[in-house]
Every structure is written in C-alpha cells, then in structure tokens.
Amino acid sequence: MKTERTDNIPLLCRKGNSKRLMEDLVNMMFLVLGLVAVGSVLVITIYLVISGLPAIIEIGPVEFLFGTKWASTATDPSFGILPFILTSIYGTAGAIVIGVPIGFFVSVYLAKMAPAWLKHSMQMLIGILSGIPSVIYGLVGMTVLVPAIRIAFGVPDGAGLLAAMIVLAIMILPSVIKVSLSSLEAVPQEYEQASLALGATDVETYFKVIVPSAKSGILTSIVLGVGRAIGEAMAIMMVAGNVANMPSLFKSVRFLTTAVASEMSYSSGLQRQALFSIALVLFFFIMLINAFLNVIRKRSDE
User: Fold this and answer.
1) Mean pLDDT of the chain
2) DSSP letters along 143-191, please?
3) Strand, helix or coil for residue 77
4) How sure is the predictor about 1, in pLDDT bands with cuts at 50, 70 and 90?
5) Tens digits of per-residue pLDDT, 175-197?
6) DSSP labels for 84-120?
7) Distance (Å, rounded) from C-alpha 79 to C-alpha 65?
8) Which of 26, 91, 206, 209 is the most buried (most CB within 10 A)?
9) What pLDDT, in 10s, does the model give residues 106-140?
C-alpha cells in the first residue's frame, strides 16, 4: 500500500499563509490610500464652504453670482462674478470644441492607420507635451499667439478669449489623445476582423465598430480635458489679458481661476473672503460638469 508524502505540507502552508498575509497588506494599503483620497476631498470641500460661504451671505447670492461688475479694491467695492463665470464657460467650451475633435482624429489615426515609426514618434511627442509646465504654454502664447491674433484680425490687442481658447485646446490635447488611444487599442482585434470579413471598409470599421466600442474611454478623455481646461490659471493669465470684462473673443477677460490667482497675494478682509467664494463656485462648477459628463458616459455604456 502506497503512502503519501507529507514532508512538504508545512512548507506549503507557510507559503500560503505568507501569500494571504501579503494580499491582506496590499488590500489594507489600498484601503488606506482610498480613505486618504476621499478624506482629502472632504477636507477641501468643508474648508472652502467655511471660508467662502460668509462672503456670499454678506454680499448677497444674487449680487455675487449675477453681478456684472468686479471692483474689489474700489472705495465702494463691487463683487459681481458673472463675467468670470461666463468667461470660464465660454473658454472651456471653446477649448473642447477645438481640442477634442483634433485629439480624437489624431488618436484614431495613430491607433489604426499610422505606421509604427510615426506612431512611436508621435507618442514621444505627446508625452513631452503633457510634461511641459503650463507657464511655458502661456509664455509661447504670449509671445507668438497673441501678436499673431493681433495682426490677423487687426485688433488693438490679441490677448483675449480667443487666445485663451487656443492655448487651452493645445493643453488638453495630450490627455485626450493618450486616453483615447489607449481605449482604441484595448478593443479586441476580433471586432475589426469580423467587420472586415463582413465586407466593411477600413474607415467604416474604424468609425462604426472600433470607436463605439471605445466610447467609454473617449468620454473619459473628454472629462480629463474639461478638468484641465477649467482649472488652468497661469497660462490663461498670460494670454487672456486678465481684465474683468464680459466675455468677448477679442477683449481682455478674466477666468474664475485667474481671478483668484491674481488678487490673493494682496487681498484682505471681505475681498479675501470673496476670493474664497470664487474658489467655492469654481469647485462646485467642476463637480457639476464632471457629474454631467459621467452621467452621459454611464448612459452611453448602458
């Protein structure tokens, strides 16, 4: 009668216990990091509400949100931020309209049509673009784009909303291209082969089969692009003129972000509280946009 060897059982048990211990440690680490991330968002939210709400109450919600004049340092100060809100909306929308189609078509081309050497070179270039500091974008825009707009359209100053839209569109391109490209490449190759086998052309396969299969990732890239565009301050301050006017393509304008960044260093009293109120409005504005885009993405997935 044969007997089973049990010499290796204690060793196997020890290996199994150490593996479970390692998994428990990794799970605990991810749990702690997740709680830290959620806690950070809660702390920021609470701080902004505590710091920004008193000024809104003192100024008046209607006057603050819908007032058209911002003169925080005047003898009789005014704290209307409607020009900042509309400028941020128009600037972000313009950047998305310009940047997203370009990024989308570039990602489709790189994923399915470009030769390997060109795809590799473009990916390196996109990586470089994503790592360039925003102040460099602003400097190039101020020295190249602003004079070009002034000459092309015959306006006194090229610094304005149009220049800000173009700079923001360029800044969101790396995020849109990289995420969309990864999503397109993740679509199973069998989808493309099946479509071609049924008689579809290459272009029909790309835009009627591959792109719909990757639409969740493409929408995610748009969400990241919106977040980058609406949260930018330094580059926009350098090309938009930074004057509290109602939005116009060829007039100097001020965004919500640049309104906070330009006055926070010397603010005090009600002016400083109003700047925190602008930050609070910007915070909820970004949350609403992201929630709206996430709802659209979930519905498209369903």
Assistant:
1) 86
2) IIIHHHHHHHHT-S---SHHHHHHHHHHHHHHHHHHHHHHHHHTS-HHH
3) coil
4) very low
5) 899 999 988 988 888 888 888 88
6) HHHHHHHHHHHHHHHHHHHHHHHHHHHHHTS-HHHHH
7) 9
8) 91
9) 999 998 888 889 889 998 888 888 888 888 999 99
CB 282 within 8 A of CB 256: yes
Residue with the two structure tokens 């500091």: 133
Burial (CB count within 10 angstroms: exposed 0-12, middle 13-18, buried 19+), residue 2 = exposed
Cα-based angle 24, 26, 32 (whole degrees, multiple of 5)? 100
3 state DSSP class of 2: coil
243 pLDDT above the threshold of 90: no
What is the spatial distance between Cα 93 and Cα 193, in angstroms, rounded to a whole number? 37
Instruction: Specify the 3-state DSSP secondary structure of 70.
Output: strand
Pick the closest to residue 145 from 129, 161, 163, 170 (CA basis).
Answer: 163
Report which DSSP code applies to 245: -
- Least Cα distance to 91 among 284, 296, 282 occurs for 282
* pTM of the complete model beyond 0.90: no
Helix axes 116-131, 82-112, angle to 10 degrees: 160
